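Render this sequence as a predicted structure.
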Amino acid sequence: MKNKMDSISQFLIAGEFQYRVYDLGRKLTLLPNSLFQHIEDQIVLYPYPFQQKAWLALLFWSKTDDTEPTIWFLQFPIDELGYLKQASRDAFLQELLIHVGTNLQAQQSGSQMQDSLKESAFAFKPRQDRLAIFHAFATVELKQPPSQYYQQTREYLQGNIGYEQWQFLGLQGIADVIARLDIDNNEQLLSQALPQLPATPLISFTENLEHNEISNELSLVLQQQLQQALDAEQINSLLIAALIRAISSSKNQLTRQQVIKQLLETDAVKEIEVIAALAGRAWQDITHNELLPDFMQALAYQQQDAFNVILSDIMGIPNLREPILKTLRNPDRSNLLSKRIGSFLDGVFI
């Protein structure tokens, strides 16, 4: 391995590792190796910034032996233009090379090697639900079996033990099913089971569905569940947000946008969980010309701090800044939206 590495990609290639890079900020999204190299070289903007950062999961393993794969969870800031900050990446590389050198010396002297880079300032620990879905997709990538909870979760979805008996369900079993929608008839199983589920397990399954592309059939089931939630006497904003997150991964763009249009015409969109789900998971649809003005009006119903945070976040996504600015400049915007924009501009130069 060369003494100097200019990128994480070079380090992994020089080490003759197989590797996969995922974004964990919005949804679990694979970043092809060539794309990640271009991101590191600032050839392309970082595609999925969240809170002005890149939240990365790196999975890599030896090409030549059967040692356990290594996983790094790393976060790097995104600059004002939307590129990965190379200075932060370079600081991590320096840490990495020191770590490798220390371990080589320990190996040669027979001392104990350091276990990981967990003390790095660039490392982070994902939430438990993100860890579960990442590990589920990692086992698929590595052609490893799912966890022991996979079959239990499938039995629950089949109704064999009663849909009210959901307390034993674990995050990993749910994630394993979602990561394997295309095998064991899991997508059909979910389509049949979801209308029968109580709110708590329904939320757990639908929140996980945001990480995998779903069929038209399953999208229709979710759409029907969303309509029922909107028609309920008491709004369950967490359930509505979870359903929106799942529908955001539908293969059918028209269905996604129809659902969002319908939602934007209801009072449910004033709930912070719902508007955050739209901004965080359906960003590719809310900026559609027919939807963006209504989304911005819905966002204006939030308190100023929430308005500022969400608007700053989505404006950092590549290709969204200009359409959002165009909408903000619309002279026909409401007085409330104008007020929110004015306060936003007082604190942020755009």
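Summary. The longest strand covers residues 53-62. Residues 127-197 form one domain.
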